[in-house]
Amino acid sequence: MIKVKTLILSSIFGIVLAGCGGSSSSPIGVTVTGLASGTGTSLTLLNNGANPLSIGSNGFFTFSVPVQSGGAYNVYVGTQPIGETCTVTNGSGTVGSNGAAVTNISVNCVANIASNTIVFGNLTGLPAGKQVVLVNGQDTLTLAVSGAFAFPTAVPVGGAYLVSLKSQSPGLNCTMSNVSGTIPATGFIAPVVVSC
Known about the structure:
The chain is mainly beta. The protein has one helix at residues 2-20, and strands spanning 25-26, 28-33, 43-47, 50-55, 59-62, 67-68, 72-79, 84-89, 92-94, 102-111, 120-124, 132-136, 139-143, 147-150, 160-168, 175-177, 180-182, 192-195.
């Protein structure tokens, strides 16, 4: 009887030790460089197809959900910033068993050629279930969520643009600024601002 009790206690003790043994998780961090400021847009990164990380400036950032030791990570660009292309280096790998943070992932952003010919902006304050419709030349954009937007048709350097509010859902009172101008030879336009 004593041997049986000893065997049971030993088994339980072994299970407890295994449970405490060392399953750990590691934060996944990235360093972003080259991201332009003042464009009204941001870069979105994903890890393993989830856990979106929205970044609006250069620096070091960490995903909110860590990865268990021995688990794989795969960081890639979910949404490119308007006017730039960002490339991930060292984006995939396996977390070590020691629980050390992953810090060697880098993201470098560079301006696209002729990126300054894009008319873009930012929409804020749009309630769920509502929408606004914007027009620039022959382009029409229907926006149903707040955030960055861009018209698909480029405007030549030196060409004029004029963004107008074609329609908005009942009950909305949206205002706009920076709606017109001329495409510069270098640099970006002032982003169109739509506030609801």
